[in-house]
User: Fold these one by one.
Assistant:
Number 1:
Amino acid sequence: MASTTSLPFIGTLPAGPRDAITDVAGVTVGHRTLADGPVQTGVTVIRPHAGDPFRDKVPAAAVVLNGFGKSVGLVQLAELGVLETPIALTNTFSVGTVATAQIRHCATANPETGRALPTVNPLVFECNDGFLNDIQRLAVTEADYLEALDAADTDFEQGSVGAGRGMSSFQLKGGIGSASRRVAMADGTTHTVGTLVLANYGRQPQLVLAGHAVGERLAALQAAKEASEPEKGSIIIVVATDAPLDARQLRRLALRAGAGLARTGSVYGHGSGDLVLAFSTAYTIPDRADRPMPAVAMLHDTRLDGLFQAAADSTEQAILHALWRATPVTGRDGNHRAALGELLPASSLSPLA
């Protein structure tokens, strides 16, 4: 993994100790990476807490910045405002397999799922990794989802791993990136906002790093043949917070991640699937009416600005981490993606700080 000591730090808010989504207490991340010749893909799983989200649901909301995507679970999420499975990321053609794995896992833990109990709403997001990965092989299995789930921890790799293994961003190697920011509130408390991205988007000439337009320079260095092609990638952004927010407020928080995405040079192009999910770990909602509902005092809307800044800044930082921590990958038909660190070494990034 490339050193990040010379990378620009985005914004003025402090990061958490890991500068990752897992700085939000209870959140863990796991990967299953498949890297074998033309198969360059995988699964990444985000667990909102250590328990069973089917029994103890998590408040959440999603925003579609541009809907060129094939995710599953968003309709019920928009209606009910809760998560009831871990969040899974994978490639486009593996959404069905991973959703089935989530259903089987829930039914194993709760045998009456879909019988005496309600059905479960699997939640799977995707990006198309078909440039590097032979996506038609349908290489991801249900066992791969379970391995990623079991591997979930507070410390996790970033870059060309898990669902990010075959992803491309700005005609460079993309993948998984994460960051966090801490917000001091007026009442003396502190809340954390953490973000994880699956970066698979962007046109190289438009790339902006910490406010510096470097895309044209990179395109010249790389002689990128695709520099003039239209946008046809995607990004999934997952925002977690320990602030007590309801689904309406979480939707507002999710929207602010779009500000961080735009700063990197994205215009949410026609062929790009740009989706944001935000959830809170401050409380859970029971699955049955005979269990007590939480008594939680939500933040007042006028106190959200710091969290909005944290969502924007941590998203931009997470994208930078995804690009910088990625390693070069050669995959299907010899297709290759160079890593940002190969073309712009840390010494050349330091003046941007």
Number 2:
Amino acid sequence: MDPNLKMSSNMNINITQKAMKFLQKAKKNKLYIKRIVVTQCCIPLSTPPAVRKGSPRKPEDFHEFIFDGITVYYDRDLIPKPKLTIDTEGLGLSERLMVSDWVIKY
């Protein structure tokens, strides 16, 4: 098994090297993945979840996983995925965390 992969409750969470460096630079050892609801003209749109540094305001609304010293909170309203990869996008001041393998099917 890949040492960067952690199996928890049937969910594999992979945090890339770039995302780990981003968290280390920000001095954070926690992140959370939350559902985003976008409503356009009465029609909710499916979007990938947001990934934020730190702890959520209501941790009881999240599943908690540990990966290589990083606590990952996963929104209970999101469908559990068999595999989830957390990476970064952007450069410099616009760099942010993201779920890189989230697939939306219409």
Number 3:
Amino acid sequence: MGSYRDARLRLPREDVDLPEDRGCLRWVLGIPLVVLYVPAVYACGIALAMRPDSPYDQVREDARFLGGFSVFLCLLGLLITITPLYRRTMSRWWFAAPVLLATVAYFRARTV
């Protein structure tokens, strides 16, 4: 009987990952991802804006490089995002945006 009474009187165990505590943690964990994805968006935008005049134009190689660079940054961000801490804390939208951006950059690098 004593054990039942002691169990009733104990306070409920607090979880370390409370939903109200995740707001600040999401901001802190989002900073490295934003630092990677902003240059990736910029490089992809420049690659999309480049219009080479001829098949032997240097702009074609620059667009391919920028597309590949954008894909590299997105993959690096996705590697960070699949770590257990990020998967527990961040929403699934942090996977969707870089996959979409990397797909656009890859096809731009291939079709220049």
